[in-house]
């Protein structure tokens, strides 16, 4: 899984009723877009994350403003 700064990091809820956690990738710490990533989540929490099977990277399109 590869990402760039500004992409969205989405951790899907694992159980019924659990909401997805959505964050912005602030820093790609691995080589060539590989994990780990420094992510700022919507609640303001910043953490270092490596994507698992319940994670999706949503890439920004060219010209799309940063959130």
TrEMBL record:
Biased segments, Basic and acidic residues type: 55-67
A Pfam family that the UniProt record links to this protein: DUF1918
Gene3D superfamilies according to UniProt: Domain of unknown function DUF1918 (2.30.30.440)
Domain of life the protein comes from: Bacteria
Domain DUF1918: 1-57
Region (Disordered): 46-67
Name of this protein: DUF1918 domain-containing protein
Organism this protein belongs to: Streptomyces achromogenes
């Amino acid at each position: 899984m590869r990402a760039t700064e500004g992409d969205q990091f989405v951790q899907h809820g694992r159980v019924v009723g659990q909401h997805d956690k959505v964050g912005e990738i602030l820093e790609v710490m691995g080589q060539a877009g590989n994990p780990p990533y420094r992510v700022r989540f919507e609640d303001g929490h910043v953490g270092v994350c490596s994507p698992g099977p319940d994670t999706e990277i949503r890439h920004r399109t060219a010209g799309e403003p940063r959130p």
